[in-house]
Amino acid sequence: MRHSNSCLLRVFLLFAFVTTAATSAAAKSEWQAGVAKRVITPPQPMWMSGYAGRKGPAEGKLHDLWAKALVLQSPDGERLVLVSLDLVGIGRDVSQGICKKLQETHSLRRSQISICTSHTHTGPVVGRNLITMYSLTEQHKSLIDEYAVFLQDAVGKVVAEAFSNVQSASVSYGLGKATFAVNRRNNREADVPMLRENGELKGPVDHSAPVLAVRNEKGELSAVVFGYACHATVLGLMEWSGDWPGFAQIEIEKRHPKAIAMFVAGCGADQNPLPRRTVELAQEYGQQMATAVDKVLAADMKKVSGGLTSTYKEIDLKLATLPDKDTIEEDTMSSNTYIAGRAKHLLQMIEEKGSLDQTYPYPVQVWGIGNDARMVVLGGEVVVDYANRLRDEFPEKDLWVAGYSNDVMAYIPSKRVLLEGGYEGATSMIYYGLPTAWSENVEEHIVKTVHELADALDK
């Protein structure tokens, strides 16, 4: 009898081992994903970001701002974490704080984390981002510092929730189109309706709308990530909102109640939604984008096959000739409050560090999503030339190029835009607190790095 029980026990243990191994093998052969969202609307009125002309804190909200997170895991166990924020941008200080916490908590490499902002101009000031644009009291600065701490905590929590929601999934992607973005350097805002009607709009654009869809085991849409190269500058109100990307996310989630929609801004630094300046137009562009996304979701999307790969590098992006201390001191007396504010900021940097930096640690990231899709993730406000050039230089890949990610430290002009000058090429550096424009090698340095990182993924 004892012998019989012993045999029975061995059979049971063998069955349990085989079942566990089979379950584990099945899990490893599947894609997995988890998604979550969390409100990051400031809990109290504070200074709004995006426009220098504002003279006070926010006075209410049109809708909430959100932090959203998507965790993707390929069959071999490799993971990527995408975070989207309804914010004008984040600086290096906040980005590094968030990534350090995520790396420690979830055993991630820096390359596996991408933090993307929508660039809404009706969100709060975050940390040191665009800090020389505003005249702030100590109370305002204190609220901004408190919000930066709140934001880092919120991102940590939403990513943890996304990890807890991980389950079997299928991942696919496709490409849509929307046409409300207009090159603002080449078309006067007042002329746009007539120019559009006559088919006479000028300048480079990127009207592509890439879409990544995540569906659960039942085939239900659980997450949709979409991108577009266009400023979120329809609204200049004193109320919190995600501008047109916020309305687009709301509309997509309304149409797909079980899904979380996430926006990743493209290289739209020189692209505006035109016409603009009304809530109705922000809602209309949101609906146009939601419809473009729906067309992709209803079509035959390309299923992701293969694995996940990631690379990340910070390069020493060179600035042009730096101003000397005498010039900076002279600028502190400027009648232009923004030039004077930057000069005071630069003098403080010289006092703290001894000199100004000739370069900036610029983040470049490339993700491989399956065998065919690549996502290039760039810092700063990147002009459309980069997306158009990179797609031409990677014709064999389905390329998604994002800007406003990981660190929004300044505008990133192409060489063409840099030489042309103007706001995107030069004067915007005043508001970001950088001492001068970029060097003429800015475009080649970034594009060369993208190629190096992409090549590393394919080895």
Oligomer: single chain
> Rounded to an integer, what's the Rg over CA atoms?
24 Å
Give a short account of the largest sheet.
9 strands, mixed
Number of strands: 17
3D shape: globular
How far is the first residue's CA from the last residue's CA?
60 Å
Low-confidence stretches: 11-28
Return the domain count. 1
In helices, the fraction of residues equals 25-40%
Summarize the structure.
This protein has 459 residues and is of the alpha+beta class.
What attributes characterize this protein structure?
single chain; 459 residues; alpha+beta
Structural description of this entry:
Residues 1-21 form the signal peptide. InterPro entries: NEUT/ALK_ceramidase_N. Residues 32-259 form the Neutral/alkaline non-lysosomal ceramidase N-terminal domain. With 459 residues, the protein is α+β, with helices and mostly antiparallel strands. It has one domain. The protein is built from 13 helices and 17 strands. Strands 1, 2, 3, 4, 5, 7, 8, 9 and 11 form a 9-stranded mixed sheet that branches. A 4-stranded mixed sheet has the order 12-13-14-16, covered by helices on one side. Strands 6-10 form a two-stranded antiparallel ribbon. The longest helix is centred in the N-terminal third of the chain and has 27 residues, at 2-28. The relative contact order is 0.13.
